[in-house]
């Protein structure tokens, strides 16, 4: 009797892992195979590997019935090894399998080539000339060209010492004419035989021989074939057979192609089976040989044809029908269009037949097949049935690729072989034997008990026994073993145990220290004399204790005289203190230093212990070093000439510097504080390196100056002191700190430059004013002879504010305005070089007061001028103009007289009466000056803050200004208009992409480039810093536009529209995502990309910011992405999913409702999508013909409301009249408009500094009412501020609270004037709405105002008024009153009135206060009412209740028995004899247990012994996240399961979810975390950095650089012993 084996893995059944189980269809397999299949299945059902019948198994196969007939056979079967499948060899006997449970699946075994008799190991036609045909194989008619296949024998006669032998062969014979020459054919046959000799999985070809009128091709004979196997299995094969046969065929054809052979004969009947069940390819290459014998064609009217002797039409590739190109194949040199890819088509057709049991193109003639394949380019219609036969998606996609019309698109056989082998790995097989077996007993004969052996006898032959016990963490057993071993007389056993090394070269003490278990270490060192024993890397055990961060282990080793000052690596490596600093363990460092370790030790590279701790940002460890004698290290430079103090400045470590100043002596501080680094002293570094660390930099400067740092020290490259640097970067706070420390405001550097010089030259305007106020001397000259006046005037051509500073500096006593610099220039010379219109009137007057007279102004026609402010009576009169009038020069009469065009007409003026002003030119953006109350030419619809564009200037001096929505230009007096200041220095801007001509020239700039405003000139033109230009580019503000600025820390990627970045790819792609770590002054981005050694530079124009994604965001693939990072798979552009995980390398895992696994792509590939919300009404988008999840009896007209949203984004829609929920993919759903007729709306806030011009209400807040809703998403609105109605899209507006009759209102804060004037109302008036019109116009009854007041709702705001008896709470911004604090809860007792008008106050009674609180309603907010009978408890944040505990605590829950008028609650509890008085602000309501919803964190209840759908890999401690819920069943995601876990809702309970920022530690008592300890121990504490949607935690433990991945069941909160959430919301 054969041994009963699983037909999938061919491993013998047993009663444990390999228990035989029965599926519902009756087929049986072992537990291990079914478990692996279930793990890979997308749902809770399992398809039978044999018949594909589905069996519901839940979460585990344990629910399946056992196959007891097989179990009964196990005891009767011999104890022999399992019969494993082998690629070579055959069964030991030729008998057939007895039943379906033994060995391989039941089939008729194929015959193999007859074993060669003794003395005949191989045969060929030359040595075996006798060929006899026995019978014809097959009963059908002969094939094309009369081909027939016969069974025969090949033999040789005895003689000459050779024995007679006979071999069974298969013979394909083809009739040939008597005169046909076969010399060329024989040569080709021999080439074919030699080329295929060493190919695997092919039928051996022996050659060809002529017998009578036939040419016979001789090959090995096989009785079995894939075609016969399909007939036996009912027409098609199982998944296992498809994979195994497919791999064999792919391997064979791949090797034939490598040998230069194209098969052109792949079909099921030509795929034979050998004795071991392997598939072999036959008839390969014969078609090419037969073509030389005959060339008959199938009749066809089309140009395409097929050689009837060569191919089978059902398996022929398109290029073989219609020759397209000359083949280079050695066996096909007369055929056009045929290539190795043609075999891929045939293989695809063969796979279709193997999967479906149907012959491709069945029922069609050769002509019809040719038309479908060649002309219509169709695959076989049977291919559509492949998808539903249970094949993995990758396989049926591969079959589809084989059937591509273009041969170049078909996969190679090597790729197909990899695919088959990869899926064969998923076929369950037996697990490998364990490599480590602790004290395993040898197999003994049946009935013999193993002898009783002591533990000492077992460890004699196993010196690593102690290692195993240490790994298990059982200190008691370790202690017992060592005690028994120490009792041995010779002591050799204890030494062997303690000194033995495992495969990693570690002793047991090393392992105990690595585990961080002080109990194990103490147990071992009690018997080990040498605690400094080295492992194979020459590391003592204390190194592992330091890495584990266990101060107890370090203490135990130090107590046994461990060496702590010796250097590692034979004295050439670091000290133990260096190792401890490298791991950042402050407690361990404390133990080492207290034991005598040198805190100032220096390693071979010049690094002190403090260097390492500071460089790795281990603040606590560095402070311990300083507090234990390491202060002297702060002044020790390393090989890079940097001290730890310099490293503290570079890492902004204020805590270490502050502690060093506190504990170090004055001598130690003096030795270290002014040590120069390559870039200057610590003070210079602290003042300079300030990007995103302004706060830390200022604090460091304050500490260093207080400690005695030299303020005159200068940095190396620029010779700047700290004050120079602070002034240059315009840091006012830092300048104040330095000046308050007593530093001279006029301190000079090596070039005699003062901080004022630097600030004026760099445009640091804030610091200029501060320095001048601090007494900066404007007359000091630098090495070039320039004083502050020279520098300010010279830089004024770029920095307009410098002209204002000149005016202020001239006010100082004795300004040196006549001093010449080394070039001989005075202040006057610098100002003469500036355009005269830049010299404004106040500056000119101040200069004249100081004796500086500029040359007379030269006027030209079209110059803009205005009257000087000291002109009160012009020589020719005002002539209609005014003192503030501005005009342009119409003509020049002579040097003293001008004719100027004002908007009131022409006027004759003297040149001494006017000055030049900066003109307003066409295209400039302008607005009304603030001091203009009424424009000269009226308003015409625009408001004060309206922004327009200058269209032209009329000859009469009137400006024409265009506003959006206006039909023609608005006439304006230029004296009433000013240019809009749109930009500031430092703003990020983009050159308008449509710019073709620039006012100041295009130079080499590229439209669309992004840069930073470097400075603003006096005429408001901009100097723009671009990273690819060496000098700033001059432009007008209208030629650029605002862009979202880049910031340090932003994640960025290259735009999809950029084919080649300005600074080249450098190995990166569009999918590469990096983080900005620095930004140059011209906008150049310095980017850090993961896994890239060097930093990457980028032009900001080429980059785009990545949205800040988090788990739970709704996303879709960007429209600009041609293909995601890892391909589309089954995702499309309209697919919407939810982010489930974020990887450190920039990849994101997205859950789509139609996929069982996460879709991986780069964060650069996706963008956020508007999330759906429960309650929204949706329908299927009209563009969707077939929804992803099906129609489920619904139609495109069905409308429903979202009832629930699963974690994968599935929308569960409630349709009216339907009981069940309709599941719809979010990418297929479309929201209905959220607006209804009558809704009050306003425009959404605009983005950017420029106001929008919609609704013809420029610069004004407007509220409208929805009048009608269009199908296209547009809404028709009506508003009281304009006549008629207008359309706007629903995405541009948002709802606002409607105004209703009876509401109390007041004027909106900050309103200057209502739309229709005040009309007896005042800004503080209050009233009640008496009427509301359909367009939103309201009629208000104001107190003290007669009649109803007509108003625009945008001018009003609703004022909350509370009713008597309503419960209210003081808002967080409310003022404190007596004992009341924000959050206090009381009851409204009345409303305050002044005369007959409400004065805006509310009277509230609060418990514990005798007086009522009176205040504005704006300081109150409503709260839910407390009622008698409610269950309440004290809030967790309350330390001491107002009225005491009364023998209760936080866990006490009581019922409200009565409520006083001031809100005081009287609570009845079972533990209290009297009522417990409580302030309502101190309690919270105890709600009933909430229903478990999607997104909740849950665990199986302790009372559940076995869940309904079995445990699977889950247990009572497992914590997961609910992903889907339906009909009382939950699908839960656990971080260690690839598939969702199914259970009943009542079987689980909520737990407290982990969140980012939680302080956590490893759960005490945990044997081993799910993904290993890493370098952590029970003492490790960290912070949750990320949480995936399946609960997987990413934790940053202290002193670790890398994140630790953890199972939430292995983690607890650092301040909470448990995570179980009680129904009332508390955690127990």
TrEMBL record:
Listed SMART domains: ANK, RING
Residue intervals of the Protein kinase domain: 131-425
Protein name: RING-type E3 ubiquitin transferase
Pathway participation: Protein modification; protein ubiquitination
Family matches, as SUPFAM superfamilies: Ankyrin repeat, Protein kinase-like (PK-like), RING/U-box
Domain annotation RING-type: ranges: 6-52
Matches recorded under InterPro entries: Ankyrin_rpt (IPR002110), Ankyrin_rpt-contain_sf (IPR036770), KEG (IPR044584), Kinase-like_dom_sf (IPR011009), Prot_kinase_dom (IPR000719), SH3_15 (IPR040847), Znf-RING_euk (IPR027370), Znf_RING (IPR001841)
Extent of the ANK repeats: 504-536, 572-604, 718-750, 751-783
Catalytic activity annotation: S-ubiquitinyl-[E2 ubiquitin-conjugating enzyme]-L-cysteine + [acceptor protein]-L-lysine = [E2 ubiquitin-conjugating enzyme]-L-cysteine + N(6)-ubiquitinyl-[acceptor protein]-L-lysine
Enzyme Commission code(s) on record: 2.3.2.27
Species, as recorded: Panicum hallii var. hallii
Region of interest: Disordered: 78-119
GO BP annotation list: abscisic acid-activated signaling pathway; defense response; late endosome to vacuole transport; negative regulation of abscisic acid-activated signaling pathway; protein ubiquitination
Biased composition (Low complexity): 78-93, 108-118
UniProt entry tagged with the keyword Acetylation: no
Record keywords, A-Z: ANK repeat, Metal-binding, Repeat, Transferase, Ubl conjugation pathway, Zinc, Zinc-finger
GO cellular component, as recorded: early endosome; trans-Golgi network
Keyword Protein biosynthesis applies: no
GO molecular function: ATP binding; protein kinase activity; ubiquitin protein ligase activity; zinc ion binding
């Amino acid at each position: 009797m054969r041994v009963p084996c699983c037909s999938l893995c061919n491993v013998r059944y047993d009663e444990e892992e390999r228990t035989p189980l029965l599926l519902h269809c009756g087929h049986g397999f072992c537990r291990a195979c079914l478990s692996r299949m279930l793990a890979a299945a997308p749902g809770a059902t399992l398809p039978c590997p044999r018949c594909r019948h589905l069996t519901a198994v839940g979460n585990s196969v344990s629910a399946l019935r056992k196959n007891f007939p097989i179990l009964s056979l196990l005891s009767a079967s011999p104890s022999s090894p399992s019969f494993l499948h082998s690629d070579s060899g055959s069964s030991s006997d030729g008998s057939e399998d007895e039943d379906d449970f033994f060995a391989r699946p039941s089939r008729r075994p194929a015959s193999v080539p007859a074993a060669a008799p003794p003395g005949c190991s191989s045969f060929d036609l030359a040595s075996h000339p006798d060929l006899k045909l026995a019978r014809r194989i097959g009963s059908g008619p002969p094939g094309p060209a009369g081909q027939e296949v016969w069974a025969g024998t090949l033999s040789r006669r005895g003689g000459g010492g050779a024995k007679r032998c006979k071999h069974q062969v298969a013979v394909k014979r083809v009739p040939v004419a008597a005169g046909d020459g076969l010399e060329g054919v024989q040569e080709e046959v021999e080439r074919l035989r030699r080329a295929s000799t060493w190919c695997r999985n092919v039928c051996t070809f022996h050659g060809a021989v002529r017998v009578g009128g036939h040419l016979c091709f001789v090959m090995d004979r096989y009785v079995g074939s894939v075609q016969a196997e399909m007939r036996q299995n009912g027409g098609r094969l199982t998944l296992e057979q498809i994979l195994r046969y497919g791999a064999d065929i792919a391997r064979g054809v791949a090797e034939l192609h490598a040998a230069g052979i194209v098969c052109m004969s792949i079909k099921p009947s030509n795929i034979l089976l050998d004795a071991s069940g392997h598939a072999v390819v036959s008839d390969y290459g014969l078609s090419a040989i037969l073509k030389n014998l005959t060339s008959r064609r199938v009749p066809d009217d089309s140009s395409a044809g097929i050689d009837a002797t060569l191919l089978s039409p059902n398996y022929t590739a398109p290029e073989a029908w219609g020759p397209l190109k000359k083949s280079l194949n050695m066996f096909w040199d007369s055929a056009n269009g045929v290539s190795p890819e043609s075999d891929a088509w045939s293989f695809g057709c063969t796979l279709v037949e193997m999967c479906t049991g149907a012959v491709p193109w069945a029922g069609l003639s050769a002509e019809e097949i040719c038309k479908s394949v060649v002309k219509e380019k169709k695959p076989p219609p049977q291919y559509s049935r492949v998808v539903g036969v249970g094949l993995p998606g990758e396989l049926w996609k591969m079959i589809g690729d084989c059937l591509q019309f273009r041969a170049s698109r078909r996969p190679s056989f090597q790729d197909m072989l990899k695919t088959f082998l990869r899926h064969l790995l998923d076929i369950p097989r037996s697990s490998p034997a364990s490599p480590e077996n602790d004290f395993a007993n040898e197999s003994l004969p049946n009935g013999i008990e193993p002898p009783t052996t002591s533990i000492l006898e077992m460890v004699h032959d196993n010196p690593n026994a102690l290692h195993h016990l240490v790994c298990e963490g059982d200190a008691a057993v370790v202690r017992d073993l060592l005690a028994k071993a120490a009792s041995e007389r010779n002591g050799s056993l204890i030494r062997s145990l303690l000194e033995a090394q495992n495969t990693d070269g570690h002793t047991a003490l090393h392992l105990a220290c690595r585990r961080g278990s002080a109990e194990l270490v103490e147990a071992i060192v009690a018997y080990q004399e040498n605690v400094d024993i080295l492992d194979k890397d020459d590391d003592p055990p204390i190194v592992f204790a330091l890495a584990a961060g266990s101060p107890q282990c370090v203490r135990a080793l130090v107590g046994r005289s461990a060496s702590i000052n010796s250097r590692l690596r034979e004295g050439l490596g670091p000290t133990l203190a260096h190792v401890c600093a490298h791991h950042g363990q402050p407690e361990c460092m404390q133990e080492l230093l207290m034991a005598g370790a040198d805190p100032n030790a220096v390693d071979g590279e010049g690094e002190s212990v403090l260097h390492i701790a500071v460089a790795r940002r281990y603040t606590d460890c560095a402070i311990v070093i300083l507090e234990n004698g390491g202060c002297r290290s702060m002044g020790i430079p390393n090989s890079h000439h940097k001290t730890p103090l310099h490293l503290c400045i570079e890492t902004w470590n204020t805590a270490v510097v502050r502690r060093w100043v506190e504990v170090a002596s004055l001598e130690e501080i003096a030795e270290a504080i002014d040590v120069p680094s390559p870039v200057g002293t610590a003070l210079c570094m602290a003042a300079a390196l300030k990007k995103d660390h302004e706060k830390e930099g200022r604090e460091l400067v304050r500490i260093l100056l207080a400690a005695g740092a030299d303020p005159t020290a200068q940095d190396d490259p620029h010779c700047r002191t700290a004050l120079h640097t602070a002034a240059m970067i315009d840091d006012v706070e830092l300048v104040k700190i330095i000046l308050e420390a007593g530093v001279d405001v006029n301190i000079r550097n090596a070039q005699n430059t003062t901080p004022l010089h630097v600030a004026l030259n760099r445009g640091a305007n804030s610091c200029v004013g501060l320095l001048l106020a601090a007494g900066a001397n404007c007359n000091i000259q630098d090495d070039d002879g320039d004083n502050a006046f020279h520098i300010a005037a010279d830089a004024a051509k770029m920095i307009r504010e410098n002209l204002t500073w000149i005016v202020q500096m001239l006010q100082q006593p004795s300004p040196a305005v006549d001093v010449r610099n080394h070039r001989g220039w005075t202040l006057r010379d610098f100002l003469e070089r500036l355009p005269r219109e830049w010299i404004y009137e106040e500056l000119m007057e101040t200069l004249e007061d100081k004796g500086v007279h500029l040359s007379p102004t030269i006027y030209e026609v079209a110059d803009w001028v205005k009257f000087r402010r000291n002109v009160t009576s012009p020589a020719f009169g005002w002539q209609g103009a005014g003192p503030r009038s501005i005009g342009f020069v119409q003509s020049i009469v002579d040097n003293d007289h001008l004719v100027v065009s004002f908007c009131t007409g022409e006027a004759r003026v003297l040149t001494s009466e006017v000055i030049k002003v900066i003109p307003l030119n066409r295209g400039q953006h302008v607005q009304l000056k603030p001091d203009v109350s009424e424009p000269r030419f009226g308003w015409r619809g625009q408001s004060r803050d309206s922004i327009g564009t200058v269209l032209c200037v009329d000859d009469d001096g009137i400006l024409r200004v265009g506003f959006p929505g206006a039909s023609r230009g608005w006439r304006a007096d230029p004296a009433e208009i000013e240019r809009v200041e749109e930009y500031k220095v430092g703003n990020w801007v983009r050159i308008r992409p449509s710019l073709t001509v620039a006012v100041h020239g295009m130079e080499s700039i590229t439209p669309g480039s992004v840069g930073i405003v470097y400075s603003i000139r006096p005429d408001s033109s901009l100097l723009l810093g671009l990273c690819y230009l060496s000098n700033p580019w001059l432009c007008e503000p209208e030629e650029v536009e605002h862009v979202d600025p880049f910031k340090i820390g932003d994640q960025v990627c290259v735009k999809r529209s950029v084919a080649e970045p300005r600074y080249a790819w450098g190995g990166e792609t569009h999918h590469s995502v990096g983080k900005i770590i620095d930004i140059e002054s011209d906008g150049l981005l310095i980017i850090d990309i993961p896994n890239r050694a060097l930093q990457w530079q980028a032009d900001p124009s080429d980059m785009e910011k990545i949205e800040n994604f988090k788990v739970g965001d709704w996303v879709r693939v960007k429209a600009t992405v041609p293909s995601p990072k890892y391909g589309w798979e089954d995702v499309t552009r309209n697919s919407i999913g939810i982010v489930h995980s974020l990887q450190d390398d920039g990849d994101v895992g997205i859950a789509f409702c139609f996929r069982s696994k996460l879709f991986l792509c780069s964060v650069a590939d996706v963008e956020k999508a508007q999330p759906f919300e429960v309650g929204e009404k949706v329908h299927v988008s009209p563009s969707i013909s077939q929804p992803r999840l099906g129609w489920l009896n619904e139609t495109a007209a069905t409308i429903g409301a979202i009832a629930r949203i699963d974690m994968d984004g599935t929308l569960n829609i409630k349709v009216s009249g339907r009981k069940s929920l309709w599941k719809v993919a979010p990418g297929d759903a479309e929201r209905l408009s959220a607006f209804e007729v009558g809704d009050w709306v306003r425009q959404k806030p605009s983005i950017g500094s420029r106001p929008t011009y919609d609704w013809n209400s420029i610069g004004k807040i407007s509220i409208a009412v929805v009048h009608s809703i269009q199908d296209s998403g547009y809404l028709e609105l009506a508003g009281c501020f304009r006549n008629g109605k207008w359309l706007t899209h629903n995405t541009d507006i948002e709802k606002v609270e409607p105004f209703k009759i009876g509401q109390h209102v007041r004027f909106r804060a900050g309103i200057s004037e209502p739309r229709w004037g005040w009309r007896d109302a005042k800004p503080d008036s209050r009233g009640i709405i008496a009427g509301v019109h359909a367009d939103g116009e309201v009629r208000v009854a104001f107190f003290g105002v007669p009649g109803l007041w007509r108003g625009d709702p945008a001018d009003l705001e609703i004022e909350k008024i509370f009713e008597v008896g309503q419960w209210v709470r003081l808002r967080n911004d409310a003022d404190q009153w007596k004992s009341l604090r924000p959050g206090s809860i009381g009851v409204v007792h009345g409303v305050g009135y002044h005369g007959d008008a409400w004065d805006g106050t509310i009277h509230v009674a609060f418990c514990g206060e005798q007086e009522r609180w009176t205040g504005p309603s704006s300081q109150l907010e409503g709260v839910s009412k407390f009622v008698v009978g409610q269950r309440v408890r004290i809030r967790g944040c309350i330390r001491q209740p107002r009225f005491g505990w009364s023998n209760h605590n936080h866990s006490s829950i009581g019922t409200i028995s009565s409520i006083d008028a001031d809100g005081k609650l009287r609570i009845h509890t079972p533990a209290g004899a009297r009522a417990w008085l409580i302030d309502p602000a101190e309690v919270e309501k105890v709600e009933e247990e909430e229903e478990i919803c999607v997104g909740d964190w849950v665990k199986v209840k302790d009372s559940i012994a076995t869940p309904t759908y079995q445990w699977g890999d889950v247990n009572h401690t497992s914590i997961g996240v609910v992903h889907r819920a339906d009909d009382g069943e939950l699908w839960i995601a656990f971080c260690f399961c690839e598939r969702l876990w199914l259970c009943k809702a009542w079987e689980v309970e909520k737990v407290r979810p982990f969140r980012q920022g939680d302080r956590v530690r490893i759960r005490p008592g945990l044997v081993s975390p799910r993904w290993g300890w890493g370098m952590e121990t029970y003492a490790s504490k960290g912070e949750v950095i990320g949480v995936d949607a399946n609960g997987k935690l990413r934790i940053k433990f202290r002193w670790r650089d890398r994140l630790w991945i953890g199972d939430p069941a292995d983690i607890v909160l650092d301040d909470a012993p448990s995570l179980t959430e009680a129904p009332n919301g508390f955690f127990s």
